[in-house]
Specification:
Elements: H1 10-14, H2 26-34, E1 47-55, H3 59-71, E2 77-80, E3 96-97, H4 104-136, E4 148-152, H5 162-169, E5 176-179, H6 181-188, E6 194-198, E7 202-203, H7 206-219, E8 223-225, E9 232-236, E10 239-244, E11 247-256, H8 266-269, E12 272-283, E13 297-300, E14 306-310, E15 316-325, H9 331-334, H10 342-352, E16 360-372, E17 378-381, E18 388-392, H11 401-414, H12 439-459, H13 466-472
Parallel strand pairs: 1-2, 1-11, 2-8, 4-13, 11-18
Antiparallel strand pairs: 3-7, 4-6, 5-6, 9-10, 10-11, 12-15, 12-16, 13-14, 14-15, 17-18
Helix pairs in contact: 2-7, 3-7, 3-11, 4-11, 12-13
The structure holds flavin-adenine dinucleotide (FAD).
Length: about 475
């Protein structure tokens, strides 16, 4: 007999509306076009068994499945995805593959110095691994190791990277190089005031990467079912059962790689803030701008990050983080939509990037970003379900760290004890918890309004009034911790 789980009830999960295809990101449109948009995999329509059932076809789910097969090709791995692989954040992000060194202070706070540095180092290896894996498996994800620049775009941001750079300075493999305004501007493709660069990071095409990973996963023998949402989780003879609309998977372990949708797990909900980033891809006006494909991926040092990067075809992506706020467990689905208030986003792009005035808009989308209260990803088992694991909370830095998340979840799912699966990343993050709804949403709106106001005033080099400043201090989210 299948017992519906208390954490993932049929009622909750029925609300998972797979992202609307009309809201497809530039990346996913491009990647699916290259597949003729027809190679959607079939839904699950039967009862099957697996050693591990992975739920979610983003980077975390695919890297987990691939790692399980790589370690032991005889492991039966099945992956189910509510929409198509890449429909979540993995196909909608900025495509900057970074590591966790910028979050070193947060890592130390959670795990102490030794473990923190071990995790930061593993996250550098993860980016190297990603690049080699794509090369070895003919995934052309348009990867350029042009580095990641953490830049200042107004006076209040100057040197805000100092704590991370100083914390890393005592390690010979600290990846940071501090740049003056001129050198940083050259790398940014536009004028910035200064910055710190990490040359080990890369820009890539996330749509081609996620679809390429799904292809390779299948070639390794992993069964992938798309359009197959997990509706409920039951258990039978101590083994979890993943229940989908037309089928069931009985597995020794289940891995929930559902990222923003993990807010449906009550204990996770208290630790995740569901916000959103808006993105546009533009084609510069002819003759107005020489595309710089050698430019780095750039994030500024504001609390509501501006980020930008060139694409291989001479277009540019510009994004702004922290703009929306999800309500209750529906947040993840409702925040997938066409980018609203485009005028503001374009104005901000022109401010940061005057050379992009007059460019043509090719695509604009909003997608949810889950910020954990520690700014770090965390991994554990669902309370009451010792064989059901999850990983989430990448806080806007997941393209590289998801590889590491896959290694870690593969170990948890198979009971392997190693440096990552035994690390603090699998212990409940220290610190406060978020209040329940509707308090968190209403409070969040007040804080968000103050953040946007402070951001605008700082960009205009104006004084931030004490009330606005005080309210922004309540914001529990941060890219670096
Ligand atoms: C706009 C934006 C910009 C970003 N920019 C960057 C960046 O430049 N660099 C960086 O490092 N990180 C960035 N990030 C973060 C990064 O994209 C994520 O951390 C990463 O993609 C998370 O991958 P994931 O596989 O864990 O989650 P996702 O890619 O979200 O995958 C989860 C999957 O689970 C599926 N799913 C959900 N519920 C169910 C269910 N019940 N049954 C079956 N399937 C289900 C979803 O459809 C989805 O495909 C950005 C994120 C966003 C949104």
């Amino acid at each position: 007999m299948t017992r519906p789980a208390f954490v993932l009830t049929r009622g909750d999960l029925r609300r998972i509306d797979p992202p609307d295809s009309a809201v497809r990101s530039y990346w996913m449109r491009d990647a699916l076009l290259a597949e003729n948009d027809e190679i959607h995999r079939q839904p699950l329509r039967s009862r099957i068994h697996a050693d591990v059932c992975v739920v979610g076809g983003g980077f975390t789910g695919l890297w987990t499945a691939i790692e399980l097969k790589r370690r032991d090709p005889s492991t039966e791995v099945t992956l189910i995805e509510a929409a198509v692989c890449g429909a979540g954040a993995s196909g909608a992000n900025g495509g900057m593959a970074m590591n966790l060194w910028p979050k070193l202070s947060a890592l130390i706070k959670q795990g102490g110095e030794d473990e923190a540095v071990a995790v930061a180092r593993a996250s550098v290896k993860a980016v190297d691994y990603l690049i080699n894996f794509c090369e070895d498996n003919a995934i052309d994800a348009q990867i350029y190791r042009t580095g990641w620049l953490w830049a200042s775009t107004n006076r209040s941001q100057d040197n805000s990277w100092d704590p991370a750079v100083e914390a890393a300075a005592s390690y010979r493999d600290s990846p940071f190089r501090v740049l003056d305004g001129q050198a940083a501007s050259k790398l940014a493709g536009t004028r910035v005031r200064g910055g710190v660069v990490d040359d080990s990071c890369a820009n890539l095409h996330p749509g081609l990467l996620v679809r390429g990973l799904a292809r390779v996963a299948e070639s390794m023998g992993i069964r992938i079912y798309e359009h197959t949402p997990l509706r409920a989780l039951g258990s039978n003879a101590h083994a979890p059962v993943a229940i989908t609309p037309f089928g069931e998977i009985r597995a020794a372990s289940v891995v929930l790689a559902i990222n923003a949708w993990a807010t449906q797990i009550p204990s996770v909900r208290q630790q995740l803030v569901m916000t959103a980033s808006d993105n546009i891809v533009v084609k510069p006006a002819p003759g107005s701008y020489a595309p710089v494909t050698t430019a780095a991926g750039v994030s500024d040092a504001g609390r509501l990050l501006d980020y930008w990067r060139p694409l291989e075809d001479g277009t540019w992506l510009f994004g702004k983080a922290g703009l929306g706020l999800g309500y209750r467990t529906r947040g993840a689905s409702t925040l997938f939509r066409p980018a609203p208030r485009l005028d503001n986003l374009i104005k901000q792009m022109h401010r940061e990037f005057p050379a992009l005035q007059g460019s043509t808009m090719l695509s604009a989308w909003r997608a949810p970003v889950e910020y954990s209260l520690s700014s770090l990803p965390f991994f554990s088992n669902v309370p009451g379900y010792p064989r059901v694991f999850y990983g989430t909370g990448y806080s806007g830095d997941g393209v590289g760290p998801c590889v590491m998340g896959g290694w870690l979840l593969a170990s948890l799912a198979t009971g392997v004890k190693d440096e990552l699966s035994e690390s603090f990343l699998t212990r409940s993050p220290k610190g406060r918890r978020l209040p329940p709804e509707p308090i968190r949403f209403l409070g969040g709106q007040v804080v968000k309004a103050a953040m946007i106001r402070r951001d605008r005033l700082e960009d205009q080099q104006k004084r931030v009034d004490p009330v606005t400043r005080m309210v922004t201090l309540i914001d529990p989210t941060s890219f670096v911790g």
